[in-house]
């Protein structure tokens, strides 16, 4: 499904990703862990095509298509979804209007008819309930005045509505209490299927208690330095990331 | 002085004038025709008035727009002439409505109470209107009377015509009224439309001014409000621009504990000019004012905003906030904004802010990352900028209609 | 409570003494002859005389501006003397030992000893007394580094090419009414040139003193920072306590060539007049700098003196990526009136400007911020941030904000915010409850309010500015 080879990327002349490779098959859940500044958020931005993130080397294929050739919105329509760590507030644009535009853009890309207002409202209400958000959130401005937890749940609600094939969750657990974490995790788990893959980016192992990964990768200094199964996350939990420095120094 | 104004002054000098018109004439004779050094006209040229050619044949009768779901009492003026008789109107009890050109004693008393008394004397075109306005309406709501049906006053300008309309509205103590002033036109024409509103103790006025003149239709007008104790004003302005479109809004807190809310939206298409000058006078303590003006300025368009808040000595405990935000869509457009504070009392909370900005990269990226096309995302974000003020309008039917109108206009504008 | 604040604001002007110096002063009045005489006294080249005369010609056709939020009796330009210099300066003393001791004592009393060994290390001073420069210290040390720091009269003779090239290049001679007057009659001032790549080894400063009666001071400062150089320049001003109003109309021009940085700081403490508004300096000053590519000009001003202040230190951000800054504290009390602010003209791409203005009004004073931020059509990606805060002390004063914003580029971002506040009873109560007397409390609150600006001042000046506010706010509390 997603094939990343030797990805190098820079932001404002600073190279952040330095040869990252990753292969994800349909239905798999990959966790990416790593210390602050390792490039975890950058990976999501580069894959989704944010302005200012420049790919200097490497290839990325999504479902056999060259991802890096595409515009941000084309990548989204190709099935890539990024749940933001800090979703932006957009006053004046209602959540409802925003998501309806978005859902119908996806449907159009998939060759489906756009949803009518009534059909969309029905779906939106269901999704809203699923992530425990009150219905009036649909009428409010996008993320406007939402708490940190509400913003994260709003991201998951969008994921549910947009039905992507590859979901990148960027620290969807940060700043959440245990109840909110459970809601987010339930939302994600409800979307797991043999066709849909996930990249779960997190600093802590905690989220992985709720969303069981098939693989865990450690990202440090722009590269994946270690891969393993779920037990690797537990190891990190115990040891922290300090050993990375030693390992690298020893290697250098 | 322009030829146009000279003729007006010349004509008036040979007419019989009442006291207020004589005053206006004397004041006009003292006035200088504005140029770039005239602070009130620093950014807006009055040369379109000098170049305007009036007269000629009207080709068709303009039609007022229909606002779905708006249950209002409509009064239609075309080129400043009332198109209906007020004699057989059935009016709710406590509402007096008379044509300015046909006042009875009661109407005359209201007119005398208001005409030129609320509008400050320094507006050049206000003085012109004082001098030559013969048409208009006088409205009086008796104390304690609540009028539910909005009063919609439509003023259409057609080709080659010059018109001067005056509206005088008095709300007695505890009275309540909604007034919609709607101006439209696009052919070469010139209209001045000034309105004076007096709000009694605890009176409540919901007010809209839709200044939707475009292209060659020149409009210069004003809305002037005086608020007595605990009165409430909620006014919304929606403006397009034309070769010259200018509005002066004055709100005077004359009684304590009054509240004024003023929202303004301006959406300027290609080549349009709109100039809004607002002035809030806090003459007494304990008043509150919230003013929000937002504008989107397209190609070769020019927006001018001058928002003044004046806190007089002793007007302690005033709360006044003014915010002006602008979006410029083209490097051939221009925005000139000047929020002014003039404060003579220390125990007050006053703030103003003004921004000129482009769409935030983060917000655009967020929409793109959800598969929305760049052009659609720009429209949503730009429009979202004024959507907040549309959502804030108390009259839902009007808000829906305006939303459609604005969206329609906006979709024709080029977003870079 | 507010009464206590009022009393805490009772004025005291420490620089109000008169020096007993014998001077040669022109008779009052202004005509072409006076200008020729000034030029002749200075033995000026013909081009400069012509330049002055052209400025005078323009000035006569101009009208005194009335747009500022200032009210004062019309200035009688024929009642002012346009030149006054201590007689002892006639023979141009070669060293400090030849300078009239009374002059040296004057500066000592103002806390500016002119003997290098007594001075703050690292600050060179040009002392201007009425119409002439008395002395410029540390010249040798500066010249070793290639830095030129002398009076502008001297520069006209020693560096004619530099002066000719840059004089009037930023503030044209008929730029505005007061600048035109200055161009016609300027008598002295400072000249600074920092060569390519040089960082001035010390802070440069000029102290302006008006002493003589019925005279105006018209000084002209020109600072040129060549490519990649850096200089920090300070300016201070005082005058005796007199019943008449005296005119001060200065022009300052800054040129920051590619990659250069100029930091210009002012502590203005001209005599503000008495509590009834009698006397005091009318301060009409034009200050402007031009920034070439990647250059940076920073204006910091602490304005506590003058009966009238009319002053807008500005930046023309001509070069791409250039930066302009304006940090201002303006304190007006008694009957003082201030109308001050800045202009930031963004012409180049990615130019940035910051404006922080703190206005304090007390007594019967009026204090206005007036500013212009202009984004030209080519100012791609330009940014401005403006914050204007006003503090009102007492209910008889006024605080005003007149910001003009003009944008012609869709990618430029301008943000302007203004707020107003008072010294609240709660703040006063808290301070007093913690044992501070009301004077100290007010001065602490005001100092806190100004902190963002004070931190921009060079160390020596920050201390002085803080003290100046304290003196201004000091008084007997009942």
Automatic annotation (TrEMBL), chain A:
Keyword ATP-binding: yes
ABC transporter domain residues: 2-246
Family: Belongs to the ABC transporter superfamily. Ycf16 family.
UniProt protein name: Fe-S cluster assembly ATPase SufC
Coiled-coil zones: none
Entry-linked SMART domains: AAA
Matches recorded under InterPro entries: AAA+_ATPase, ABC_transporter-like_ATP-bd, FeS-cluster_ATPase_SufC, P-loop_NTPase
Organism of derivation: Bowmanella denitrificans
Gene name linked to the record: sufC
Keyword field: ATP-binding, Nucleotide-binding
Pfam families cross-referenced by the UniProt entry: ABC_tran
From TrEMBL, chain C:
SUF system FeS cluster assembly SufBD core domain ranges (all copies): 208-449
Sequence ranges assigned to domain SUF system FeS cluster assembly SufBD N-terminal in this UniProt record: 143-199
InterPro entries listed in its UniProt record: Fe-S_cluster_assembly_SufBD (IPR055346), SUF_FeS_clus_asmbl_SufB (IPR010231), SUF_FeS_clus_asmbl_SufBD_core (IPR000825), SUF_FeS_clus_asmbl_SufBD_sf (IPR037284), SufBD_N (IPR045595)
Family statement drawn from the similarity comment of this UniProt entry: Belongs to the iron-sulfur cluster assembly SufBD family.
NCBIfam families hit by this protein: PRK11814.1 (NF008773), sufB (TIGR01980)
Name of the protein this chain belongs to: Fe-S cluster assembly protein SufB
Organism: Bowmanella denitrificans
């Amino acid at each position: 499904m997603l094939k990343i080879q030797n990805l190098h990327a820079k932001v404002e002349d600073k190279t952040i990703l330095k040869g990252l490779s990753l292969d994800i098959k349909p239905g798999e859940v990959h966790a990416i862990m790593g210390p602050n500044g390792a490039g975890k958020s950058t990976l999501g931005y580069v894959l989704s095509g944010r302005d200012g993130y420049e790919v200097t080397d490497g290839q990325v294929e999504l479902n056999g298509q060259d991802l890096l050739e595409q515009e941000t919105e084309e990548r989204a329509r190709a099935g890539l979804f990024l749940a933001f760590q800090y979703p932006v507030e957009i006053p004046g644009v209602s959540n409802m209007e925003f998501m309806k535009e978005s859902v119908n853009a996806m449907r159009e890309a998939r060759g489906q008819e756009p949803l009518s207002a009534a059909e969309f409202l029905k779906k939106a209400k269901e999704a809203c309930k699923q992530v425990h958000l009150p219905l009036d959130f649909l009428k409010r401005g996008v993320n406007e005045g939402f708490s940190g937890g509400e913003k994260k749940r709003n991201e998951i609600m969008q994921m549910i509505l947009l039905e992507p094939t590859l979901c990148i969750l960027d620290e969807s657990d940060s700043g959440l209490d245990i109840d909110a974490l459970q809601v987010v995790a339930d939302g994600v788990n409800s979307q797991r299927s043999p066709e849909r893959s996930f990249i779960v980016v997190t600093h802590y192992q905690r989220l992985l208690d709720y969303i069981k990964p098939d693989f865990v990768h450690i990202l440090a200094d722009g590269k994946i330095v270690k891969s393993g199964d779920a037990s690797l996350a537990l190891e990190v939990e115990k040891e922290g990331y300090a050993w990375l420095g030693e390992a690298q120094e020893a290697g250098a | 002085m322009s030829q146009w104004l000279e003729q007006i002054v010349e004509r008036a000098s040979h007419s019989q004038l009442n006291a207020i018109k004589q005053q206006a004439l004397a004041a006009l004779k003292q006035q200088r025709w504005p140029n770039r050094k005239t602070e009130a006209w620093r950014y807006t040229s009055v040369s379109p008035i000098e170049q305007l050619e009036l007269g000629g044949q009207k080709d068709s009768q303009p039609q007022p727009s229909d606002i779905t779901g708006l249950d209002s009492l409509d009064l239609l003026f075309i080129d400043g002439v009332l198109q209906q008789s007020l004699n057989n109107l059935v009016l709710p009890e406590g509402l007096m409505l008379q044509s300015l050109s046909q006042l009875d004693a009661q109407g005359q008393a209201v007119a005398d109470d208001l005409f030129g008394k609320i509008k400050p004397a320094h507006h050049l075109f206000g003085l012109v209107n004082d001098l030559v306005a013969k048409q208009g309406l006088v409205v009086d709501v008796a104390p304690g009377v609540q009028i539910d049906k909005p009063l919609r006053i439509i003023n259409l300008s057609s080709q080659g015509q010059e018109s001067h309309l005056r509206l005088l509205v008095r709300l007695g103590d505890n009275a309540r009224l909604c007034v919609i002033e709607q101006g439209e036109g696009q052919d070469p024409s010139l209209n001045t439309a000034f309105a004076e509103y007096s709000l009694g103790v605890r009176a409540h006025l919901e007010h809209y001014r839709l200044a939707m003149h475009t292209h060659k239709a020149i409009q210069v007008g004003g809305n002037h409000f005086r608020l007595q104790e605990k009165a409430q004003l909620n006014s919304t302005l929606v403006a397009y621009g034309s070769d010259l479109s200018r509005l002066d809004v004055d709100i005077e807190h004359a009684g304590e504990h009054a509240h004024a809310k003023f929202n303004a939206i301006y959406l300027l298409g290609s080549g349009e000019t709109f100039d809004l000058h607002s002035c809030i006078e806090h003459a007494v303590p304990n008043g509150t004012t919230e003013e929000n003006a937002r504008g989107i300025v397209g190609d070769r368009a020019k927006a001018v905003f001058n928002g003044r808040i004046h806190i007089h000595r002793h007007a302690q405990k005033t709360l006044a906030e003014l915010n002006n935000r602008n979006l410029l869509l083209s490097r051939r457009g221009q925005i000139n904004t000047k929020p002014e504070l003039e404060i003579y009392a220390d125990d007050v909370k006053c703030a103003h802010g003004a921004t000129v900005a482009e769409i935030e990269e983060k917000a655009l990226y967020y929409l793109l990352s959800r598969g929305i096309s760049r052009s659609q995302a720009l429209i949503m974000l730009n429009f979202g900028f004024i959507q907040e003020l549309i959502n804030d309008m108390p009259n839902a039917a009007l808000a829906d209609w305006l939303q459609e109108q604005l969206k329609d206009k906006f979709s024709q504008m080029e977003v870079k | 409570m507010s009464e206590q604040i009022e009393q805490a604001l009772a004025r005291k002007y420490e620089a109000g003494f008169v020096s007993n110096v014998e001077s040669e002063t022109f008779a009052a009045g202004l005509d072409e002859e006076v200008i020729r005489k000034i030029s002749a006294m200075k033995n000026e080249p013909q081009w400069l005389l012509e330049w002055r005369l052209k400025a005078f010609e323009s000035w006569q056709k101009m009208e005194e501006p009335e747009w500022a939020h200032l009210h004062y009796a019309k200035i009688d330009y024929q009642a002012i003397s346009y030149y006054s210099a201590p007689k002892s300066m006639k023979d141009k003393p070669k060293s400090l030992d030849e300078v009239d001791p009374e002059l040296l004592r004057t500066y000592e009393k103002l806390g500016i000893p002119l003997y290098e060994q007594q001075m703050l290390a690292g600050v060179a001073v040009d002392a201007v007394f009425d119409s002439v420069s008395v002395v410029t210290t540390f010249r040798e040390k500066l010249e070793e580094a290639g830095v030129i720091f002398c009076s502008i009269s001297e520069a006209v003779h020693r560096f004619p090419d530099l002066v000719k090239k840059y004089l009037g290049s930023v503030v044209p001679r008929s730029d505005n009414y007061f600048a035109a007057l200055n161009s016609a009659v300027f008598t002295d001032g400072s000249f600074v040139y920092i060569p390519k790549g040089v960082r001035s080894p010390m802070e440069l400063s000029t102290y302006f003193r008006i002493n003589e009666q019925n005279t105006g001071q018209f000084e002209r400062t020109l600072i040129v920072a060549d490519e990649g150089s850096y200089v920090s320049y300070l300016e201070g001003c005082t005058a005796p306590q007199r019943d008449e109003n005296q005119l001060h109309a200065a022009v300052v021009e800054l040129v920051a060539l590619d990659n250069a940085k100029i930091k210009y700081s002012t502590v203005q403490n001209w005599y503000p007049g008495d509590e009834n508004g009698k006397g005091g300096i009318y301060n009409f000053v034009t200050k402007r700098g031009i920034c070439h590519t990647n250059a940076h000009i920073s204006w910091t001003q602490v304005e506590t003196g003058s009966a009238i202040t009319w002053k807008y230190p500005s930046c023309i951000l001509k070069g791409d990526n250039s930066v302009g800054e304006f940090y201002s504290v303006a304190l007006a009390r008694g009957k003082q009136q201030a109308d001050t602010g800045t202009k930031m003209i963004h012409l180049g791409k990615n130019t940035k400007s910051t404006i922080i203005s703190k206005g304090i009004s007390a007594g019967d004073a009026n204090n206005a911020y007036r500013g212009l931020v202009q984004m030209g059509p080519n100012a791609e990606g330009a940014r401005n941030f403006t914050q204007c805060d006003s503090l009102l002390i007492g209910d008889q004063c006024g605080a005003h904000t007149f910001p003009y914003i003009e944008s012609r580029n869709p990618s430029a971002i301008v943000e302007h915010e203004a707020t107003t506040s008072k010294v609240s009873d709660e703040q006063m109560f808290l301070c007093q409850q913690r044992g501070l007397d009301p004077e100290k409390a007010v001065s602490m609150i005001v100092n806190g309010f100004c902190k963002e600006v004070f931190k921009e001042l060079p160390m020596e000046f920050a201390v002085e500015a803080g003290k100046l506010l304290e003196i201004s706010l000091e008084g007997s509390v009942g």
